[in-house]
Amino acid sequence: MALKTFPIERQRKLEEKLVRRLVEGTAAWLTFKQATSARTLYSEHFLYPPLFEIGFGRGWKAVAQVPVTKATPTAGAPKTLDFVFFKNSKSSTAAVMIEVKFLRGTNTSQELAALYYDFKKLRDVSIKKIDNATLNTLECAPGKWQIIVAQRDVYEKILKSNSVRREDVASMLRRAREGTLTSAYKSVIETKLKKEFHWHVFAIGEDDWPK
User: How many CB atoms lie within 10 A of CB 105?
Assistant: First the structure.
C-alpha cells in the first residue's frame, strides 16, 4: 500500500541533496580511478557502481535500467531509464529519475542530439509509466535530472560545436559552465595533470532543459 504523500518542497530538498552528492562524489571517484591508471572510465555503465554506492550511503534505494512502459507495442528494444532513486518510508517519500551521459567528443552533433533525446525521454515518463511494481506504488512527483560527465578538453570541444540542429543544447551546456542555470550542480576537480584531463561533472534539472 502506498504511503502518504509528502509536501513537494520536502521532496525537492531531499532530491537536491542527493543530486549534489552524486555530482561531487562522481567527480571525486573519477579522479581517484584516474590516479590508479584505470583504462575503462569511458562508459556510462562504469559509473553505475559509484552512483549506487553514493545513493545507498545517503539513505536512498535505486533501480537501474528501468523499462519505460510503451503506450503501444513497437519493434525494437524498449526504452529504459538509467536510474530511479527512491525513498518510501513513514518519514519521507521521494523519487529521482536520472539519465547519465558520458561525452567523448568523437561526434559532437550526435552527442548533443543524444542529450536532447534523453531530455525528451525523461519529460515523457512518469512513475506510472515505468515497468516496476515497487516504483509504481510511489505517491510523489519524481525529480528529473541529467548527469553529464566529460574531461575538460571534450567539454570545451562540445561547447564550440557549430551544430545548427542542437545549438539549444550546446547553449545550455555553456550556461552550465558559467553557472547561470537555475537548477544545476557542477563539480570540477583540479589535479597536477594537464587541465584538459580534469573531470567535469554536471547535473542539470528539468527546468533548464531546452524545449
Answer: 15
Query: Which residue(s) pair with 88 in the sheet?
Result: 93
Both ends of the chain: CA-CA distance in Å?
36
β-partners of residue 67 are: 80
Residue 192 lies in a domain: yes
- List pLDDT tens digits, range 117-149: 999 999 999 999 999 999 999 988 999 999 999
Burial class of residue 189, CB neighbours in 10 A (0-12, 13-18, 19+): middle
Least confident window among 70-79, 101-110, 182-191: 70-79
Tell me if 3 is assigned to some domain. no
pLDDT-based confidence at 3, cuts 50/70/90?
very low
For the whole model, what pTM was predicted? 0.89
Give the domain range for residue 43.
8-208
Cell numbers at 57, concatenated: 550511503
The residues, any chain, with a CB within 8 Å of residue 96's CB and separated by 6 or more, are 15, 18, 19, 60, 83, 84, 85, 86, 142, 143, 144, 145
